[in-house]
Design a protein that fits this description.
ABC_transporter-like_ATP-bd, cell membrane, 278 residues, 5-stranded antiparallel β-sheet, Rossmann fold, ATP binding, nucleotide-binding, membrane
Length: 278
Amino acid sequence: MALLEIRNLSVEFETVTGRFRAVDGIDLSVEKGEVLAIVGESGSGKSVGMLAVMGILPASAHVTADRMMFDGRDLQNLTSAQRREIVGRDMAMIFQEPGASLNPCFTVGFQIMEVLRIHMKLGRSARRKRAIELLEAVGIRDAADRLSSFPHQMSGGQAQRVMIAMAIACNPKLLIADEPTTALDVTIQKQILDLLMKMQADQGMGLIMITHDMGVVAETADRVIVQYKGRKMEEADVLSLFENPQNRYTQALLSALPENATGDRLPTVADFMAEEAM
């Protein structure tokens, strides 16, 4: 049985001109210990689909699915309280921008310990000890002293590590990483990816990596889903996808990589899609 199984997931939003479908009939599954990459351009519905799975879209979103199972439980039939027990404990998410996701009014120590208080029911001293262990695990030096730091007192890489510490605090069965290296320099990007992959391997958790970076896909994924305009274009194991992409859009993504450039101008995805339409 898959850890996560989604069938025919759609997400619509009300707009001034009517309903806009951001996710259109997506199927996906993740096994325990597997790394699934969801790749596509900005606006392809990657993040929205996973926010729907987490149950944290705004009330204005209209979410439907034929099947939405996590670890043997039907997510669509859970009460709000039951859903909150799962989200943050068994299923966690690392968001794109730690600066926007961490609360600027509270220390990072408080924010990590709050997760432990709610989901693990740990006492004060146990929460502090675990928070220090988590910061050390994600590579933050002087962890005990950093508990009292506010988000704005940390670099982008440090703040992202705090987000990872919060996400793995309860040893989740499934971790969703939404563009975890956005806006970080190349050196920090590699450190964050290496950290995520080590933790995924050590804990045997399922990992969904949301990205538009095909290099990240090649480095991390076992299996890949390619999305375009809310729809799944292709799904394959990572080696097959890179060696023999079947869908025209996937071919366009790969052909637009710098290492595949020919001539004086790097082709774009739009170039290939325009050729397809002709």
